[in-house]
Design brief:
Layout (H helix, E strand, L loop, with lengths): L1 E5 L4 H10 L7 E6 L5 H4 L4 E5 L8 H4 L7 E4 L11 H22 L10 E6 L16 H20 L4 E7 L3 E2 L7 H7 L2 E2 H14 L5 E3 H6 L1
């Protein structure tokens, strides 16, 4: 499968890129990023790095660079405190993600043959909340923003069931590669190591899954 990986220099995205290289199921990966990748990765014949300064728009000349892509792993975003303000967090998390999904739906999905659907996998977070008006006692802005992205992506998929499908992963805390987790913490808080999460995301984007939204407990057991 030829896939797009958005956020290739981030904590999660960079691990997805590194695991995609030796994965025989991934024929090629188009890596969308604002910053250059390390030379050992960028120079691999399985990787095409596409530097992008504006993730809100996808003109024809940009889409042409993604020809043959069948799926996308979207790992751009984060918690609100990681951004200068809530509006910036919302623009990066919601506007950028939905703009890309619509562009891929309109331009890449029609290129697929044999009735295949373009597959879009979004890395969300535990406790994402779709109801914008619901009062939340902790991480309210982050959870509402994640929920807004999820809702928008699912609406796109539901409106285009013959050519676009969405999968959403909801990890809790994400720890460093190879880190050890106490079983009780993993079960309650949904913690997962970044290498385990990346492996799960690649499996889902290639093989699909019976569930559209995969909660942390499902990811931990994969």
């Amino acid at each position: 499968m030829n896939i797009i990986i958005a956020g290739g220099t981030g904590f999660v995205g960079s691990e997805v890129v590194r695991q995609a290289i030796p994965d025989p199921r991934v024929k090629h990966a188009f890596v969308l990023t604002r910053k250059p990748l390390p030379a050992d990765i960028a120079g691999h014949d399985k990787i095409t790095v596409i530097l992008n300064e504006d993730f809100s728009t996808y003109p024809p000349e940009f889409i042409s660079k993604l020809g043959g892509a069948e799926a996308c792993i979207w790992a751009i975003g984060g918690r609100v405190p990681q951004f200068p303000d809530v509006e910036t967090a919302r623009r990066v998390s919601v506007d950028f993600t939905i703009a890309a999904a619509k562009a891929f739906l309109d331009n890449l999905a029609p290129q697929l043959s044999d009735g295949r659907k373009f597959r879009f996998l979004f890395c969300s977070g535990k406790y994402a909340e779709w109801d914008d008006k619901k009062h939340l006692n902790f991480m309210a802005d982050t959870r509402h923003i994640k929920g807004q992205v999820e809702r928008g992506l699912c609406e796109l998929a539901d409106a285009n069931p013959d050519k676009f499908e969405v999968f959403i992963v909801r990890p809790g805390g994400i720890t460093t590669k190879g880190g050890r987790l106490k079983a009780t913490s993993a079960n309650i808080m949904g913690f997962i190591t970044v290498d385990h999460l990346a492996k799960d995301m690649l499996k889902i984007v290639v093989d699909g899954h019976s569930q559209r939204i995969l909660e942390s407990d499902v990811l931990i057991k994969m």
